[in-house]
Design a protein that fits this description.
Elements lengths: L13 H8 L8 H9 L6 E2 L5 E2 L2 H15 L5 H12 L7 H4 L32 H8 L3 H9 L13 H14 L9 H22 L6 H32 L2
Antiparallel strand pairs: 1-2
Helix pairs in contact: 3-4, 9-10
């Protein structure tokens, strides 16, 4: 018998699973685990007396779901589709193999710490979020999102869905708004980004027009390299300007 008077059994109780998961996911709760079960994302066994019995595979499945939600901003419907595919042997269940790169600040070393690399501009598997999912992920309200659309700061795709970049943009803007900045003040950022993209497009357009089979691949590599250098230059110029502001 356990200390709680419940019969000892194989597998893990929901409390034991929670203790394991909280090392990497401190916000997870028993209610969250039960909710994911109710949504069909994990299906623990049951003892004859009705207690949940989680296997090691169940715990890894929960880790996948929590990582996909917290690090990659995937909606539950998409996560479930991936898990169903994995159950059929179509995709691996490791969140690091097929999900997009973790959406965190870029890091590096030395003088160029935090500078982007061409790999940061490589295409990723498409993520499609509804308006409601974007609002939930960013904490931006509906009226504010409409205003961000008005100033071109967030843009949905042709089908009305949003991508992972929209989540990061929304969260970043929300943090800026806390300092009294308004969306209309950020139009300069949109205009600056569009000008930079336009310049890069002019440079690589002739390469894309080449008819040989390798032209697109070469152009993709060039535009990623240029994008990394462009963002790096922008960052360095802002850093230099801030030194003038702070007197550092």
């Amino acid at each position: 018998m356990t200390a709680a008077g419940r019969p000892q059994r194989d597998g893990l109780s929901i409390g034991a699973v929670l203790a394991q998961l909280r090392t990497d996911f401190p916000d997870v709760t028993i209610s969250k685990i039960r909710f994911l079960e109710s949504e069909g994302l994990v299906q623990p066994g049951r003892t004859p007396s009705g207690y949940r019995q989680f296997s090691a595979a169940d715990v890894e499945r929960l880790r996948f779901v929590l990582s996909a939600q917290g690090d990659h901003y995937l909606p539950l419907k998409v996560i479930k589709e991936q898990l169903d595919a994995a159950d059929r042997g179509l995709e691996p269940t490791s969140a690091t193999l097929r999900l997009p790169r973790k959406l965190v600040s870029l890091s590096g070393g030395g003088e160029h710490r935090g500078m982007p690399t061409p790999d940061d501009f490589a295409p990723e598997r498409e993520i499609r979020l509804t308006r409601e999912e974007l609002l939930a992920e960013t904490g931006v309200d509906s009226a504010m999102l409409s205003e961000l659309h008005q100033y071109g700061l967030i843009r949905s795709g042709a089908a009305g869905f949003y991508d992972a970049d929209s989540v990061l943009i929304g969260k970043t803007i929300k943090s800026l708004l806390a300092f009294g900045i308004e969306p209309r003040h950020l139009r300069a950022f949109r205009a600056s980004a569009d000008r930079e993209v336009g310049l890069l497009e002019q440079i690589v357009a002739p390469i894309y027009r080449h008819r040989d089979a390798d032209a697109k691949e070469r152009a993709d590599e060039v535009v990623r390299e240029l994008a990394a250098l462009s963002v790096a230059l922008h960052t360095l110029l802002v850093k230099a300007g801030i030194r003038n502001v702070t007197g550092g």
